[in-house]
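---------- Forwarded message ----------

FYI, see the Methionine transporter record below. Original note from H. follows.
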Amino acid sequence: MGQTQTLSGKKIASIGVVVVAVIAGLFAWNQHRQAQSKELVIGITPAFANTLQVAANEAKKQGLNVKLVEFSDWNTPNITLNHGDIDANFFQHQPFLNNAIKEGKYELKPFAAGAASRVGLYSKKYTSLDALPNKARVAVPNDPVNEGRALLLLQQAKLITLKDPSNYLSNLKDIVANPKDLQFVEMEGPQTARAVDDVDLAFSYPHYLNLAKTIDPKKALLLNNQEDKRYAILFVVRKDYKDEGGRLQKFVDIYQHSPQVKASLNAEIGSGLWYAGW
């Protein structure tokens, strides 16, 4: 009789272990399911809306819900992210982020890299850089990083000379030679695409030109040909960000490897005008 009781006790104990394991498994699965179903919120600017939506649609098929919040300027996405109102943003490259952190004292960091775009010098009035007249009006971005990038390209075009030819943070005061006495018109970076209609020459970006529909991005008088990955657009997060359930990493993997996203990049920026930054 005592032996039978002992065996029954062992059976009960074994069943108890199984039940605990099942409960633990169900709890872990529920946590995973909640993490997957929780909305991933990413701040973007209009230039990246279509391609990120393609990635979000692909993510949805894999059970990952992604909400894209669109901002019209290059300041609010970092302010909003720093406040913790969104999970990540996607609109800036590393030099821009470095400057934003310095100026805004933001607690932000890069999470992963997206695509990088070539940049160019565009004109609807002239068919060559040599044809530019004296005192030609030239549109350049007004933020320190992209203005520096524009000036480096103008130097490559031999239209100006900079005090430090390699300084990517050069500004208008760093121009030491300007043979054509070019007149610079500073404006928000995205607006240079629309300025092509009004100025003699504009530094701009293929994706913004496609949005503005002002000129074919492939018709640049000069394109930068160097694949500089520091200008890849980044997925940026707060320094204390915890990637619950690997949701953001999963979305990044979709962005970087999905054929649908690649097709969208070709359509939005232009085949040959973008390159992988990862």
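H. also flagged this: The CA atoms of residues 51 and 267 lie 9 Å apart.
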